[in-house]
Every structure is written in C-alpha cells, then in structure tokens.
Amino acid sequence: MTLIKSISGIRGTIGGIVGDNLTPVDAVKFASAYGTFLKNNISKDKLKVVIGRDARISGPMIHNLVVNTLIGLGIDVIDLGLSTTPTVEVAVPLEKADGGIILTASHNPKQWNALKLLNSKGEFLSGADGAVILEIAESEAFVFSEVDNLGTITVITDYMDRHINEILNLKLVDVEAVKAKKFKVVVDGVNSSGGIVIPDLLEKMGVEVVKLYCEPNGHFPHNPEPLKEHLGDICKLVVEEKADFGIVVDPDVDRLAFISNDGEMFGEEYTLVAVADYVLSKTPGNTVSNMSSSRALRDITEKHNGSYKASAVGEVNVVEMMKATNAVIGGEGNGGIIYPETHYGRDSLVGVALFLTHLANLNVTVAELRASYPQYFMSKNKIELTPSIDVDLILEKMAEKYANEEITTIDGVKIDFAENWAHLRKSNTEPIIRIYTEAKTQEIADELALKVIDEIKEIAGL
C-alpha cells in the first residue's frame, strides 16, 4: 500500500495506516493544507473552490471528506459531483472560483484515489505552490472557521453537458461534416465518467455509439491505463460491429486512445499527432509535447512549417512551455490533448471532437490515416524501486556512459541517437523508474529498452 506526496497533489491506496496510505485522515489533512494555502494567498472575504470526482468506489467517501473540510475552513464549494478532470478545469474559471480539486487517481487501478489541485485558471498548480502545500500539510498549521463563517455548498449537476457545448462551439469542430459521415464508434468508458460524457458528445455530433463498459460504477473491467495489453475487448468489438473506430478513455477522461477500424491500436502517441495535424492545417503554429513523447509530432509540425519543443514530463511543464512558445496545440504522448482554445489542460472531449472533424474532412479510414503518419515505435518499460537504490546516481552514470550522444537532463536523462532515443526518469506518481525508447521498428525499440534496462540493473547491482 502506498501514499505518494508530490507537488501535483497527493495520491495513494485506500485503507491502511495513516501517513502510509490515503486514509480519511490524510484526505482531510491535505484538503486542509490546500484550503489554508488559498486563504494565505488570496485576499477575499469568501473563497470558492470547484470539486468533482471520477466514478471510483472510494469517490463518494473522499468527496464528502474533502468538501466538508473546505466548508470547515470557511470556503464555499461548487460541487459538480461525478465529473471529469477537464470538466472541472473548464468550470473553475467559468464559476470565477479560486481553485479546484479533482478526486481521481487517473489511470491507476481502483484501490487508488488522489487529490489533484488546480489554481484559479483551472490549471495544475506550479511546483513551487505544490511544495508550499506539502509544507503546510506537514506543519498542520490549519485554522478552521467559527460556526457563523462556515462555507456553503452549491451543487451543479450539468457541467459535463456545459463542457460538451463549449467544445461543439469551437471554430475547428464541424458538427455538420461529422453528422454527414454517419460514423459508428465503440466507446470503452472503463465504467467511469467517460462512459457518460463521451457517448453524449458523440451522439450530439450525430455518431452512432456502441457502448462497452460505460456504467459509472467504479468497477474497472480491466486495468484502466489505456494500453494495448488492456484493450482486447474493444479491439475485438470494433471489428465485430464493423465500426469506423473505437475510443478509450481513462477514469478521469484526460487520456484518449483510438482503435482503428481493423481492430488495431491507433497508438496513444498518435492521438496527439493526428489532432495536431488537423489543427495545424487550419491554424499554423507551434507545438509542444514532453520528452517521452514521439518524434512524430515534431515531424508533423515541421511539415506544417511550425516549430516543435519538448518539455519536461508533467502537464504543468507542457503548459508552461506552450505558453512560452505560443503553441496552438500540445500535450503528452499518453493520449493527452491540450488545446488552448478551450483551456490549458488535457481534454479527451476536445480530442474526440477534433479527431472526428479531421476524419470527416479526409474521407479515409482510421487505419489509412494512421498509415499516413511517420512510423515510429515505442517501448515503455519500468523498473520497480527499492529503498536501497540511489536513482539519481544511476541516472548520472547513464549520462556519463552516453556522453558522446546528445544528452538532455532537465527531466531524468534523455539520450538522443541519430535514429532513436531513450528516456530514463523517476515517475512522479509511482515508485518506479520509467524507461521509454523509440525507434523506426518495434524490434529496435525493444532491443534498445532491454539494453538500457540491463545497464541500469548492472549499475544498481540488481
């Protein structure tokens, strides 16, 4: 069982010992720290925070604890109930709130939950702000309100519908073109909020929907990370239903993966590539993804005469670089689309709407579209950490070993070879080292990954 405290929030497994797991005490403690941080930094008589959650089994319990903690601090709560991460991000500025909390552990299994913390723009907190909140939590310097100054709750249950409408009104979303194509799409909502909002969006765009695991009961039917090894059921159903493609989202709907019409994975990395191809064709400009994302985005950006930049891993880092470079689209290779015309956050809904419009304009199958892009293959691996392993020393020695190659160390170690690359880094959310490699064939990517893993194990004495 695990509790991970990071600058992006607190994430852990439900139950167990206080301080070692995400217990009710820990949920109250970190909600208190966040509320105290807001009160210390915003000079207003009454603060307001938006709260939403995914469909995890522990969601209602954690939700009630967090909401009532904020009320105890004298903070008013806008309660969206069952929602998505991007929906809460959209709601914060629309409600003129001072912050937001999404209760979700994203792609982690059902025993996990988390508090994801937002600022008044509906964006993830900076690393500096996250560090301050961790300090407040450690000190437990909380001052709660007296009875006449308690916060209030306002329940708003239709924000996912409002979010859909915001997307349908985007200039680059052509609902009529999509309707004319009469697409048929299978949706795997992993029994969370995506099982509601993605079918609703598709139906408003005139798409015939085949639902798979779309009951938001929190009982995930497979590992909720949208990777090939977890998605056999939808791959099979797309072919059986003769669907145009399939859509898979994670429990909080900020990661998006497609299944091609032939039942093959479109590729998480290529979600952003395809959507960026469409956006850049209409609004030329720059793009950003993180260092662990495919070179294919760089190639597509340069095809449209734009400039591509790679940031450190983490949504807040991608957003920061997007703003610095005036990027028209960006995101992460895990299927996260960030389209500033809506908001600076990963959003599967906007990704779906833009992808559908792109497909409607091209008159090709999804498999043909995928084949039209630069062909890169990735291998994503990880090594479990133990307390005895000095990760920083391992990364330092790996950088020394490949000093004759192009080395980047802003986030772990990235080794750029002429035809491929390897990126080694500590995870922000799990006690592991991630090893990502990419090459022109899957065989070469896998071989490079195994070589790097063997070298790491040799250094670590594993």
UniProtKB/TrEMBL annotation:
Alphabetical UniProt keywords: Isomerase, Magnesium, Metal-binding, Phosphoprotein
Highest taxon of the lineage: Bacteria
Residue intervals of the Alpha-D-phosphohexomutase C-terminal domain: 397-454
Any one Gene Ontology BP term: carbohydrate metabolic process
Residues covered by the Alpha-D-phosphohexomutase alpha/beta/alpha domain: 8-142, 171-263, 270-376
One GO CC annotation: cytosol
Cofactor(s), names only, from the UniProt record: Mg(2+)
UniProt GO molecular function: magnesium ion binding; phosphoglucosamine mutase activity; phosphomannomutase activity
InterPro entries: A-D-PHexomutase_a/b/a-I (IPR005844), A-D-PHexomutase_a/b/a-I/II/III (IPR016055), A-D-PHexomutase_a/b/a-II (IPR005845), A-D-PHexomutase_a/b/a-III (IPR005846), A-D-PHexomutase_C (IPR005843), A-D-PHexomutase_C_sf (IPR036900), A-D-PHexomutase_CS (IPR016066), Alpha-D-phosphohexomutase_SF (IPR005841)
The protein's Enzyme Commission number: 5.4.2.10
Position of the signal peptide: none
Family indicated by similarity: Belongs to the phosphohexose mutase family.
Name by which UniProt lists this protein: Phosphoglucosamine mutase
Gene behind this protein: glmM
